[in-house]
C-alpha cells in the first residue's frame, strides 16, 4: 500500500495547495517540502529490502474487461529515480520560498507537485498503459509551468508540448503494439518474456521507444525545446529540466534495456543520437554567455552521453548510465539554483555579469565551484566517478575496434569541451568585478540549502561512492538481468578509462588556454538554421495548410458544408449499385399510415423551403419533427417519440427567442444559388431514402442486441433496454455527451456576456406595412391604437394562471419519468426536458423577458450535473471499475434502486441548466442595455416614411 499512498498524498497535496497558496503564499512551499521529506523517509525505510532484490509492489484491477491493472512496482531502478524526484523536489520547494516573490504564486507549487506525481508514476508504473498516462501528465505539467511565465513563454511552451507530446504519441503506439503482441499490459511480464522483441514487432517497438525517449530527453534534432524552456522560472528549470522531466526518457530506455540491449538497431540509434547530441551541444555550450542557456546545452550534452552508454547495452554500460544520471541530477540542479540566486540577488543573467561575485557571495560561489567541478569530472566529486564509468563503457564495448576508437574519441572530446565551459562558469565568479548591482547579498538559509546540500552531496557521494554499491548492483540486475559488481571507487588503477579522463582534462586545459580563439572560431561556425526556426516554419506551414483546407468550409454558406457529405454519399451509392442487391430479400413492409405520415413530412418540408419568413420556417420544421415523433409512436418506440416531441418544442421556443433579435425574413437569394442548393438537397435526400429503403429489414436482430435483451435486467436491474444501454453499458460515452452539452450551455452564457446578443434593430420590416398609416395624423393615431392591444400584463394573465396549475404537474411528471426510466419509458434526459418546460412556461408567461423569474443559478446546475455522474461512477470501483452500476432490489416496492439514478439526476440538471442558460442569455436584454420602447420605434419609422413621401 505504500506506493499508492505516496501517489494519493501527492494528489491530495496538489488539490490542497491552491487553498494553502491563498493563506501562506510562497511559504506554502514548506508544507510541500515536508511532505516530500516524509515520502523520502518512507522510501528509504523500504530500501534495504529493495537492494536485496525484494521489490515492493501494489496491484489492483483497474479495467478488468481489458485486463489492465493499476500496478506499481518499486525496484532498484525505480528507487533511484524516486529518490531523485523526492529529495530534489523537497529542496526545490524550500528554495522557492525565497526565490518567488511574496504573496500568492498562482498555483506553481500545485503544478510542480502534480508534476512530481506524474514523474513518480512513470518510474513506479508496472503497467504500460499506466506508464503512458503518467508520461503524458508530465508533458501537460511542463507546458503549464513554462507557459505561466507570460507572453514571452508562449512560444517555448508550445514548442515543448508539441515535441514531447509527439514523443508521447510514439510511446502510445509502442504500448498498442506491445499489448497486441503479448496480450498483456503487465510491464514485468512483458520484460520477462521478450520473445516479442525479435522480428518486425521488436523493430517497431524499438523505433517507437527511441522516438519517445529522444524527444523527452531533448536529443538532436529535437533538442531545441530545452533551451527555449529556460523561460521557465529557475526552480522549474532546476527540477524539470535538470533532475526529472528530461530523465524520463533515460528511465524509459533503461527500463526496456533487458529486451533490446543486444538489438543492433537499438544500439545504433542510441549511440548515434547520444554521441551526436553530446558533441553538438557541448560545442554550443562553450560559446554561450547566458547562464541558463549554457546550463541547458550542458544538460543536453550530458544526456547524450547517458543515452549513448545505454546504447552500448552491456551490464557495465547500463550501470554507468545510471550512475551518471544520479551524478548529473545532483550537480546540475545545484548549478541551476546557483544561477537563480545570482539572478535574484544581483540581477545577473550572464557570465559577464557575475564576475567578482565570488567575493560577495562566497557560499553561492562555493556551491557553484563544487557543482562545476563535478560537471567537469574532476576527482573526488561524484561526476568524476560517473564520467569514468561512462568512459569504461565505451572502452570495453562489444563493438569493432574502429567504432570503439570513434565512440571513445567523441566521448573524450565532449568531456574536454565540458571542462572548458565548466571552467568558464566557475572562473566568472572570481574575475574582475562587473556585477549588475553594486552590493549583492548572500541569500538566506532557505535559499542556500538546496544548492549547498546538492553540491556537498556530490562531494560526499564521490568520496563514499562505494556505499552505493548495493543500489547499483540491483539496478544492474533490473536493467540487464545480470547481477554484477558495479565496481564503484575513486581509484581503479591505471586503466583505459583513467587515461581517457586524463586526455579529457588535458585537452580541456588547452581549450581553456585558447578560449578566446576557440570561442571566436566556434562563434563563426554557427549552423545556418536553428531547431526553433525549423520548428516554427513547419508549424506555421501546417497552420497555413490547415487554413487552406478549412477554407472550403469556413463560410456561412450551406453549400460548402453540405457538398462534402453529399459527394461521399453519391460515391457510396455508386459503389452500392455494383453489389448484388435483391429486393426480394427485404422483409420490411409499409402500410397506408406510413404513406400518410410521409406525405405530411413532405408537405411541411416543401413549405419550409418555399417560406420566406424565418418564423414560418421554424414552425414548419417543428411540425415536421412532431410528425416524425408520431411516426416513432406508430413504430413502437414511445421513449424515442417522447424525447423527440420534447426536443422539438424546446428547440422551437429557444429558436423563436433568438429570432426576436434577427430580421423577419431571409435575405434574397439568386435563382442560380436556389437551383444549386435545391439540387444538393434533392440529391442528398434521394440517396438517403434509397439507402434506408435497401438497408431496412435486411438482417435479423444482431447477437449484441440479443445479449442486451437477455442480460440487461440481470446485469443492471433495469428492464428498459434502451436506458440500460445508455447509462449502464455505454455510460462513459453518455458521460462524454453530457459534458459536451454542459460546455454548450456554458458557452452560450460566455459568448453572449462577452460579445452581447445583438439587439433587434428598428426597421420598417419589423412593422407590417398595413399597420403603419402614412397620413399626417399617423403616428399619434397609431400609438393610441397600439396602446389598446399592447397590454402585456393582461395578455399574459392566462399563461400565468395556467402555469400555476401546470408547473407542479410538470415537476411531478419529471420526477416520475426519472424514477421509472430504468424499467419503463422515461429517463434522465426526458425528465430534464419535461422539467425544462417549466422554465419555458415561466419565461413565456412573463409580460417582458426581463421580468421572467428565471433566477436559477444555471452554471451551478450544469457543473453539479457533470460532477454527480462522476461521483456515481466512482462508486463503481466498489465492483471493480469506473461507472460500474451498483443496484439493489427493494422487494416491498418492487423497485430496483441503482447508482444510475444519481447519473440520471446529473443529466436532468445539465439539461435544465442548459435550457435556462439559453433563455436567460438569448431571450433577455443584456445588463445595462436600454430596451427601446416599441411605440417610439414605430413613431420614428413613420416619420421617416412621411419625410420620404413628401420629399418625393
From TrEMBL:
UniProt GO MF annotations: antiporter activity
Gene Ontology biological-process annotations: monoatomic ion transport
Residue intervals of the NADH-Ubiquinone oxidoreductase (complex I) chain 5 N-terminal domain: 63-100
Domain of life (superkingdom): Bacteria
Keywords per UniProt: Antiport, Cell membrane, Ion transport, Membrane, Transmembrane, Transmembrane helix, Transport
Gene Ontology CC terms: plasma membrane
Domain annotation NADH:quinone oxidoreductase/Mrp antiporter transmembrane: ranges: 125-405
Membrane topology term: Multi-pass membrane protein
Organism of origin: Dietzia lutea
Cell location: Cell membrane; Membrane
Coiled coil: none
Domain named MrpA C-terminal/MbhE: residues: 673-762
Stored InterPro entries: CPA3_Na-H_Antiporter_A, MnhB, MrpA_C/MbhD, MrpA_C/MbhE, ND/Mrp_TM, Proton_antipo_N
Chain segments annotated as transmembrane: 28-51, 72-96, 108-135, 156-182, 194-215, 266-287, 294-312, 318-342, 363-382, 402-423, 444-469, 489-514, 562-581, 593-610, 615-634, 640-663, 675-695, 734-752, 801-819, 825-844, 856-878, 898-919
Protein's UniProt name: Cation:proton antiporter
Domain MrpA C-terminal/MbhD: 599-664
Na+/H+ antiporter MnhB subunit-related protein domain span: 798-916
Amino acid at each position: 500500500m505504500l506506493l499508492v499512498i505516496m501517489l494519493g498524498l501527492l494528489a491530495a497535496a496538489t488539490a490542497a495547495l491552491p487553498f494553502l497558496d491563498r493563506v501562506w503564499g510562497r511559504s506554502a512551499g514548506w508544507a510541500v517540502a515536508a511532505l516530500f521529506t516524509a515520502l523520502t523517509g518512507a522510501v528509504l525505510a523500504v530500501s534495504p529490502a529493495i537492494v536485496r532484490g525484494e521489490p515492493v509492489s501494489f496491484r489492483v484491477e483497474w479495467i478488468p474487461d481489458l485486463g489492465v491493472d493499476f500496478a506499481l512496482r518499486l525496484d532498484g531502478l525505480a528507487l533511484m529515480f524516486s529518490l531523485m524526484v523526492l529529495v530534489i523536489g523537497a529542496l526545490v520547494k524550500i528554495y522557492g520560498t525565497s526565490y518567488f516573490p511574496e504573496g500568492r504564486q498562482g498555483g506553481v507549487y500545485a503544478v510542480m507537485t502534480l508534476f512530481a506525481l506524474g514523474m513518480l508514476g512513470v518510474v513506479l508504473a508496472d503497467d504500460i498503459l499506466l506508464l503512458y498516462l503518467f508520461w503524458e501528465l508530465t508533458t501537460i505539467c511542463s507546458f503549464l509551468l513554462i507557459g505561466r511565465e507570460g507572453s514571452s513563454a508562449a512560444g517555448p511552451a508550445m514548442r515543448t508540448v508539441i515535441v514531447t507530446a509527439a514523443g508521447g504519441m510514439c510511446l502510445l503506439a509502442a504500448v498498442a503494439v506491445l499489448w497486441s503482441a503479448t496480450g498483456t499490459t503487465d510491464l514485468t511480464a512483458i520484460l520477462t518474456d521478450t520473445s516479442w522483441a525479435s522480428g518486425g514487432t521488436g523493430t517497431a517497438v524499438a523505433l517507437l521507444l527511441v522516438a519517445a525517449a529522444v524527444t523527452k530527453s531533448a536529443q538532436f534534432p529535437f533538442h531545441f525545446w530545452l533551451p527555449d524552456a529556460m523561460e521557465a522560472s529557475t526552480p522549474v528549470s532546476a527540477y524539470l529540466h535538470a533532475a526529472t522531466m528530461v530523465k524520463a526518457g533515460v528511465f524509459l530506455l533503461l527500463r526496456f534495456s533487458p529486451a533490446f540491449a543486444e538489438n543492433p538497431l537499438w544500439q545504433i540509434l542510441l549511440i548515434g543520437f547520444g554521441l551526436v547530441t553530446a558533441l553538438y551541444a557541448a560545442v554550443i555550450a562553450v560559446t554561450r554567455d547566458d547562464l541558463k542557456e549554457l546550463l541547458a546545452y550542458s544538460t543536453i550534452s550530458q544526456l547524450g552521453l547517458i543515452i549513448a552508454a545505454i546504447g552500448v547495452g552491456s551490464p557495465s554500460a547500463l550501470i554507468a548510465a545510471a550512475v551518471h544520471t544520479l551524478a548529473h541530477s545532483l550537480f546540475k540542479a545545484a548549478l541551476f539554483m546557483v544561477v537563480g540566486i545570482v539572478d535574484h540577488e544581483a540581477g545577473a543573467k550572464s557570465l559577464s555579469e557575475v564576475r567578482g561575485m565570488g567575493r560577495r557571495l562566497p557560499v553561492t560561489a562555493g556551491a557553484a565551484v563544487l557543482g562545476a567541478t563535478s560537471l567537469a569530472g574532476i576527482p573526488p566529486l561524484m561526476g568524476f566517478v560517473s564520467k569514468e564509468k561512462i568512459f569504461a563503457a565505451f572502452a570495453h564495448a562489444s563493438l569493432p575496434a574502429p567504432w570503439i576508437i570513434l565512440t571513445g574519441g567523441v566521448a573524450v572530446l565532449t568531456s574536454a569541451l565540458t571542462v572548458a565551459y565548466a571552467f568558464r562558469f566557475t572562473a566568472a565568479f572570481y574575475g574582475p568585478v562587473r556585477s549588475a548591482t553594486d552590493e549583492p547579498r548572500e541569500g538566506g538559509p532557505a535559499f542556500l540549502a538546496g544548492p549547498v546540500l546538492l553540491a556537498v552531496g556530490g562531494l560526499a557521494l564521490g568520496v563514499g561512492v562505494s556505499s552505493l554499491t548495493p543500489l547499483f548492483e540491483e539496478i544492474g540486475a533490473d536493467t540487464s538481468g545480470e547481477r554484477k559488481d558495479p565496481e564503484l571507487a575513486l581509484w581503479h588503477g591505471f586503466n583505459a578509462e583513467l587515461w581517457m579522463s586524463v586526455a579529457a582534462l588535458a585537452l580541456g586545459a588547452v581549450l581553456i588556454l585558447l578560449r578566446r580563439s576557440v570561442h571566436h572560431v566556434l562563434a563563426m561556425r554557427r549552423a545556418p538554421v536553428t531547431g526553433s526556426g525549423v520548428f516554427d516554419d513547419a508549424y506555421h506551414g501546417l497552420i497555413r495548410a490547415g487554413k487552406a483546407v478549412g477554407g472550403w468550409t469556413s463560410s456561412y454558406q450551406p453549400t460548402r458544408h453540405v457538398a462534402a457529405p453529399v459527394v461521399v454519399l453519391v460515391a457510396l451509392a455508386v459503389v452500392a449499385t455494383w453489389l448484388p442487391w435483391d429486393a426480394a430479400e427485404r422483409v420490411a413492409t409499409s402500410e397506408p399510415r406510413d404513406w400518410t405520415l410521409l406525405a405530411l413530412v413532405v408537405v411541411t418540408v416543401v413549405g419550409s423551403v418555399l417560406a420566406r419568413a424565418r418564423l414560418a420556417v421554424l414552425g414548419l420544421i417543428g411540425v415536421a419533427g412532431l410528425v416524425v415523433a408520431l411516426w416513432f409512436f406508430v413504430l413502437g418506440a414511445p421513449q424515442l417519440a417522447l424525447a423527440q416531441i420534447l426536443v422539438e418544442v424546446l428547440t422551437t421556443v429557444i429558436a423563436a427567442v433568438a429570432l426576436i433579435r434577427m430580421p423577419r425574413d431571409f435575405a434574397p437569394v439568386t435563382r442560380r444559388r436556389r437551383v444549386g442548393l435545391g439540387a444538393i438537397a434533392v440529391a442528398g435526400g434521394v440517396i438517403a431514402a434509397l439507402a434506408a429503403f435497401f438497408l431496412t429489414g435486411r438482417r435479423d436482430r444482431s447477437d449484441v442486441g440479443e445479449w442486451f435483451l437477455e442480460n440487461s435486467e440481470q446485469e443492471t436491474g433495469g428492464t428498459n433496454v434502451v436506458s440500460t444501454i445508455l447509462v449502464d453499458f455505454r455510460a462513459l460515452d453518455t458521460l462524454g455527451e453530457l459534458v459536451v452539452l454542459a460546455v454548450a450551455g456554458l458557452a452560450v452564457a460566455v459568448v453572449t456576456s462577452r460579445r452581447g446578443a445583438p439587439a433587434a434593430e428598428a426597421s420598417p420590416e419589423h412593422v407590417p406595412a398595413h399597420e403603419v398609416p402614412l397620413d399626417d395624423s399617423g403616428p399619434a393615431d397609431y400609438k393610441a391604437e397600439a396602446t389598446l392591444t399592447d397590454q402585456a400584463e393582461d395578455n399574459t394573465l392566462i399563461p400565468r394562471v395556467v402555469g400555476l396549475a401546470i408547473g407542479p404537474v410538470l415537476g411531478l411528471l419529471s420526477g416520475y419519468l426519472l424514477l421509472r426510466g430504468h424499467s419503463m419509458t422515461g429517463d434522465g434526459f426526458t425528465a430534464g426536458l419535461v422539467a425544462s418546460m417549466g422554465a419555458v412556461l415561466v419565461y413565456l408567461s412573463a409580460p417582458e423577458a426581463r421580468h421572467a423569474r428565471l433566477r436559477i443559478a444555471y452554471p451551478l446546475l450544469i457543473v453539479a450535473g457533470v460532477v454527480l455522474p462522476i461521483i456515481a461512477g466512482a462508486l463503481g470501483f466498489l465492483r471493480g471499475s469506473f461507472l460500474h452500476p451498483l443496484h439493489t432490489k427493494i422487494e416491498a416496492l418492487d423497485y430496483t434502486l441503482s447508482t444510475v439514478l444519481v447519473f440520471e439526476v446529473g443529466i436532468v440538471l445539465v439539461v435544465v441548466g442548459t435550457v435556462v442558460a439559453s433563455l436567460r442569455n438569448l431571450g433577455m436584454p443584456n445588463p445595462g442595455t436600454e430596451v427601446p420602447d416599441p411605440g417610439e420605434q414605430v413613431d420614428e419609422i413613420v416619420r421617416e416614411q412621411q419625410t420620404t413621401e413628401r420629399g418625393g
